[in-house]
Amino acid sequence: MSGLPGARTCPGPGEASDLKSPLSAKFREPLTETRFQQLFGDAEQEPELLAEPRWSRLWRRRASACSGPGAWRLLLARLPPLRWLPHYRWRAWLLGDAVAGLTVGIVHVPQGMAFALLTSVPPVFGLYTSFFPVLIYTLLGTGRHLSTGTFAVLSLMTGSAVERLVPEPLSGNLSGIEKEQLDAQRVGAAAAVAFGSGALMLGMFALQLGVLATFLSEPVVKALTSGAALHVLVSQLPSLLGVPLPRQIGCFALFKTLAAVLTALPRSSPAELTISALSLALLVPVKELNVRFRDRLPTPIPGEIAMVLLASVLCFTSSLDTRYNVQIVGLLPGGFPQPLLPSLAELPRILADSLPMALVTFAVSASLASIYADKYSYTIDSNQELLAHGVSNLVSSLFSCFPNSATLATTSLLVDAGGNTQLAGLFSCMVVLSVLLWLGPLFYYLPKAVLACINISSMRQMFFQMRELPQLWRISRVDFVRNGSIALRCPLPPS
């Protein structure tokens, strides 16, 4: 939990910090039973209230909520902007929120399209998932510095589920109409997974299970995200090399993919291999510069959007798509899709996939929100976070979005760019909206290999977490083995 008195682990806004990654913060102090009662329980209840039956206390609480003041308190609790917007410091915070929101929005565009490839859906649906969830979390979330949208872990888990639910025909040679039908079925499956994940989180909210965030183990979260980085790297190798390979699912998919890539290596495309090498040669140093000079730069260098524009211009002027068969993004449909309820008949099939995704969403989002809440001395409501992410996934699924959550890379970017409140999310939505309405044709000739490079470079922080493995081995070899198994298996839902 965040905001625990006496449990600060990160420096305040005016103090120096050597925090390189939000998940590399020190562990919070243990939460004992006495401490728990002080923070969340009514340790000083009257004796007559303790003797009162539980059903009577629940009835009393519901009755008080139906009164005018009770309804207003409930509204304040469920719509956080009603609490923080009247106290918003317009002169001090607006510029920082605007710059941070626009910066994150610029990153959301290529990253959303890239993570859509992980999900096995067309790139434009990554833009939808970078718009609707961000807008909803701005209205319902309590994490002032949290950035939501597409997340590599969930995208990879969703892609594995989609590939299993809607496999590609063995023939592999699909006509244009057959490819559109396959994409439509996969989009529907991904939206159904998001719907199920959101419904489960709303059920957790109804049961007030937000307190589970107190017991999240930081090493487990690190193992989860580090394992995701490893799976993302391996899954993007076919796109980097220009080798069309079917996605491997089930047990040992990581090693099956590596074996398939090594077998197909002689058939790799020189053009796409060159594009990938040049893209990584630009993206990796830019990210390193952003980290090393974060205190000197007024805003992080938007390496992703620069790479996207350069690659699009190069592909257009050189006709790489026709001369060398380079795979490109193609036409991005303008506007938004019509609201559509996912097929309820699919829910029993996707329940085993939705449950781990709901738990991953809550684990990562609650941990990340708590870390920054501790750093900047405010509190979050873990139950309200369940509501925010549950509504975000459920409502956005009606607009063909795939599962979403808080994201490590864009949250860190938001803080570095000077974001102060959830209002930054509105500026981020403005950038994505402009691409969906007007700027989509700019990305027609974008090579998909560049999106694969963006996926890999965005995992930089997660790869660096692996440097803590020797320390974990010295502290607890049991935890080392357990977290290693989580890292190797985590992104794959049950098969």
UniProtKB/TrEMBL annotation:
Topology with respect to the bilayer: Multi-pass membrane protein
Gene Ontology biological process terms from the UniProt entry: transmembrane transport
Region Disordered, annotated ranges: 1-23
GO cellular component terms, A-Z: membrane
Keyword Transmembrane: yes
Top-level taxon in the UniProt lineage: Eukaryota
Transmembrane regions: 90-109, 116-140, 187-211, 355-374, 386-405, 425-446
Every SLC26A/SulP transporter domain range: 94-481
Compartments, as annotated in UniProt: Membrane
InterPro entries in UniProt: SLC26A/SulP_dom (IPR011547), SLC26A/SulP_fam (IPR001902)
Keywords (A to Z) from UniProt: Membrane, Transmembrane, Transmembrane helix
Name listed for the protein in its UniProt record: Solute carrier family 26 member 10
Organism expressing this protein natively: Bos mutus grunniens (Wild yak)
